[in-house]
Amino acid sequence: MQFSSSRLFSLLSWQASGKPSRGTTTYAPLVADPDRGDDVLLAHNQFKQSNQHALKKLIASGLIFLVGILLGNAVGRIPQKEIIQCNVASAESETLLYCTQVLIRQVIDSHVNRSILIPLFPAPAQDAVQYEVRRFNASFRTDITKYQGTPTEEIDKNWEDLYRYGVNQIPASEANKLVDKTVPIPGDEDNYIVTLEVFHQLHCLNLLRKSLYPDHYPTSLVNHLDHCIDILRQALTCTVDINPLSWYWYEPRKATETKLDGAHKCIDFEKIQEWAYEHRLQTVFDDSVNIQLGHGDHEHHDV
Which residue from 41, 53, 117, 124 has the highest number of Cβ atoms inside 10 Å of its Cβ? Predict the structure, then answer.
């Protein structure tokens, strides 16, 4: 015999007197009744097993959900609205597993959009990362910045200030997390030397700028431009700025042009500069000392 859920709950609500309960939630124990047959007890056992299975599934889903939250915290502080979206999704879904899938997908999306794979590629300056909406300068015609123009001492200083503290030191606890291991600082072996890639890239970009004015700068400063060009190519295709550029009608030219001064989602560069200053190298780095060998005269490589 097959039982609908309503009939099963009606059978479960019989009291000891054998009459259906009215206005009460007291249930009598369900036992096999030879007069009714064993189908009621069988249905009860099936119902109990179904509940146990559902409970186990709920517990497993909850554990996965908690792991997802922990993963989100490890990835880098998922915005609260993403957690809320997941909770809303779970309320509308049949099981908590759907919510877990949503959360993990959001974790991965958020993770990739940051362009920093924290669990695999720890970044010492990660805690300094803050996002902002910044409107670009068109850097064209009359809309130029303090980094443009014929070389002057002031322009040179503006560029050098961008990466003035580009060589930094981090403690061994941070250095041990790096995928590409670095070396301790001679005379200060508790700290290790690093350079954030953005400062290397700005250094290269400045050399490219100087190459435009060969009469103003020594050629020795621009002798590895090919390296710099390809480093910047790799950087651009790694970070991949997908902020869209709009188009507009430019009346003076009677033509539609790309709007170059649009809004962009950016990492606050000043926060990274502050981190670099706080972690600036405190001693003169002797690159002739090989810490691993304990003496100097090691092989040099031009950067």
Answer: 124
For residue 120, give both structure tokens.
């695999």
Radius of gyration of the chain (CA): 33
Q: What angle do CA 281, 287, 290 make, to 5 degrees?
A: 115
Q: Tokens 């877990």 — which residue?
A: 100
- Which residues are 134's β-sheet partners? 264
Selection from 265, 270, 264, 267 nearest residue 138 by Cα = 264
- Written as six digits, the tokens of 106 are 């959001």
Collapsing DSSP states into helix, strand and coil, what is residue 90?
A: helix
Q: What is the pTM of this model?
A: 0.58
Could you give phi then psi for residue 263, rounded to 5 degrees? -85, 140
174-207, pLDDT tens digit by residue?
A: 999 898 889 999 988 899 999 999 999 999 999 9
Q: For residue 74, which of 114, 109, 101, 111 has the smallest C-alpha distance?
A: 111
